[in-house]
Amino acid sequence: MERLKCTIQYDGSFFSGFQIQPGKRTIQGIIEDVLMKMHKGRHIRIHPSGRTDGGAHAIGQTIHFDSPYDIPLNNWKQALNTLLPDDVYVKEVEKVQDTFHARYDVVEKEYRYYVLNEAEPNVFKRNYAYFFPYVLDISSIQRACRYFEGTHDFTTFSSAKAETKGSRERTLYQVSCEKRGSEIEFIFRGNGFLYNMVRIIVGFLLDVGQGKRNQDEIEELFAKKDRRLAGDTAPPQGLYLWRVTY
Question: Active-site residue among 11, 33, 53, 153?
């Protein structure tokens, strides 16, 4: 058996998320169906670096799987992309040690979130950025971003539905916000992320930008460990899993 690591990108607009769900179109389901065809009906399970929600996208998601086939890496890439639909693409295939795990060996992940801050919606970007037509104080958001950097318990800023066992402490190396024209780009780099964590933080930061919330609340919110206190979750279409580092 050989263990293969694939870097993939996908447009999540028409998927019900990464994880396989009966009767729904998912990234895992599509890729495992393709691998089953290649392996003549044998089920090959894939393991991702993490799961993304329905509507969220990936530029650099990573998966691994084991195969009995010994195929040149370029042939693997070509075969997978020939069978995959147009909204999923394998960027790279490489052989790895059989001890490698796409989830447990992650050193750092980077997510980006895009907001379209215009008065009128853009129908061509509706699946790829969060349309937010309200006036924002970007400098207030940038100051608040710094409070999220470092090691904290992010219980308040993760979904109450999260199945995470053990510590909800994570370390964020970078939380930044830049506005170019009408596009706002948030960048989050860290050693790990809880369920909906980026989207909840973005929702809070947009409230800060509108003057509804204050950066001085953040430390108290960390301490209270109560999801209900953090406000709304930003929608999935602005979210991109950008890079996974091992």
Answer: 53
